[in-house]
Amino acid sequence: MARDPRHDVLFEPVRIGPKTLRNRFYQVPHCTGFGVQKPRGQAGHRAMKAEGGWAAACTEYCAVSPDSDETPFISARMWDDGDLRALAVMCDEVHAHGALAGVELHHSGAHCPRREWRLPALAPSQVASDYLLVVPKAMEKSDIRRIASDWRDAAVRAREAGFDIVYVYGAHSYLPMQFLSPFYNKRTDEYGGSLENRARFWLETLELVREAVGDDCAIASRIAVDALGPYGVELEEGLAFIRLADHLVDLWDVNVGSALEWSKDSGASSFFAEGWQVEHTRRVREATAKPILGVGRFTSPDAMAAVIRSGVWDVIGAARPSIADPFLPAKVEAGRYGEIRECIGCNICITKADPGGNVGCTQNATAGEEYRRGWHPERFERAENADRDVLVVGAGPAGMECAIVLGKRGFRRVHLVDAEKEIGGITRWVPRLPRRGEWARLLNWRRIQLEKLSNVEVITGTRLDAGDVREYGAELVVVATGAHWAGDGINPATHEPIDGADAGLAHVLTPEQIMLEAKRPPGERVVVYDGEGYYMAPALAELLAGEGHAVELVTCLGEIAPFTYETLEQKLLRRALHDAGVVMHEHVVLDRIAAGSVTGVDEFGEAVAFEADAVVLVTQRVSNEALYLELAERPDELEAEGIEAVYRIGDCVAPQLIADAIFDGHRLAREIDSDDPATPLPYLRERPETPVPAPS
Ligand code: ADP
Ligand code: SF4
Known about the structure:
By secondary structure, this protein is α/β, with parallel strands linked by helices. The protein contains 22 helices and 28 strands.
């Protein structure tokens, strides 16, 4: 299949100062959890993007000095030569695939947690951070000079490490933006007051960096041209700064939002459509003669090419689309459009990387596993036991992913069997919930893959019991039968069912009953009771409110949908629920459900009551494990039928995120020819380089 000529524009090179981007696809800085502590993980992840055709791959934010210690979050660091050596590994591996390596040199200023450093945060003025519970020291002139020179020294080290692009990063209301913004900068000296004064720190830092490395490295600056709120600058001042600094910068990396409102930059698909940042950044062209790079969760080559042709930006930046598909540029280049694994905008990658974990992705199970597990998103080795037939029972996300990887590993025959008329399991119907439409990409991509694999047979409308499985004729069996929402109200607060909760009754409902059986509350007033803390309860509350019900969203947790704080959706979700007329109650544990009334206790032990015609239970899910247990408990019968092994994956092991169910299915298929596939192989661990003395 040939590339559509309309996309040729995406493959034009772009000159940035002394360097050239080979095309217009650019992996912007994003967190991974690797920093400098896991240099090989860092290198493996970035190099995969380089191999997949991105013109540049950048680090996450990279602190220039210890007073920007991000602990407990993991940033990269360029404090000393040890950090230089750690990041040089990334540069070498990125260069090996013909891409440029970028480093996002950074200082958090007031927004700095410093759990390792312990000494005060530094900021233009002593005003409390709006993002973390920090009151900083107001920087003295000596602090200003020192941090600017730390930045220069970090840039010199970055050049030595092999970086081609060096950032003076001021987006997300970090230190340079804190100087520029009157919201943070209350100074009365030459670093405060007028725009020229507020711009001085950023300009002086750019000058030092440019003077030190500008002949060898491209200088990039990241700026939130419009904070879309008080935590930065508005567009006119953003543009004015770009005019002042244009002679010092080779590439403008522009976005919107702030640290507190990062949700507006790394926008979840529940609230932001592909390309939403274009309208906020389209006027940057007025202020600069240099190339402009923007972001907006772009996965459609048509949309990307249209942006370039419109002249708004020169380069398409991507963090999440590059995590979901490191080979996106290569696939566009080759016209393999159906292969593109499109980001669904769920922000699970952020929840995995940011709290100091290991970046992971719902769509791409191999993200973050490049080095430690050696997984390549596009390459699969033939399995040693590929001459067997495998039966996968259940075509939800775990079963589909497992069958795809088994198919790619060359198994003689993979039979993917599902009880329903359609494959997809939970991914069949979750996209029909309010705000989850883009999640349909999970099923769409897998359906296309399954159709292409001639050794995978998909059989729907067939429910298998243990006898059917034993007689099926496959040597290997994978049970992926998923989970269901509890109909008795068992929940994390009491670990017991709720008195009167029974989804067999007309006034008690579960998510599947609402979405798959069209069961509806028998009256107007509904309580949605949440113990999960993620999207399901708010989505059903919004759905039922939209259908005209008076909805109260009650949770036994300390706040509404706490996990959506990590996915950057919570504030927006609360707003949406409020606007839909949903009344929210936190810290309430229900103890009795009856037609017409629901009772419970609040956090202080006081009794509470709700007048409700129905209750929707979103308390917890329960694994559908009966089939697996019945098979596993009778090994003799398996042996008699020639079945070598039975495994289970996904929600039927334990109810989990779709991301983790997919990961589990992928993991088993990658390791199905190991000595003991049920037990994950150990992964490579990176330890600090400081030698640990032997015990005396
Ligand atoms: P996961 O997230 O683990 O993939 P899901 O609940 O999304 O789980 O999907 C499980 C799938 O398994 C559903 O599509 C369901 O219809 C199917 N399933 C469950 N039990 C059986 C069975 N006994 N035979 C065939 N398919 C089954
Ligand atoms: Fe996109 Fe979700 Fe993957 Fe992040 S985790 S890259 S948002 S699909």
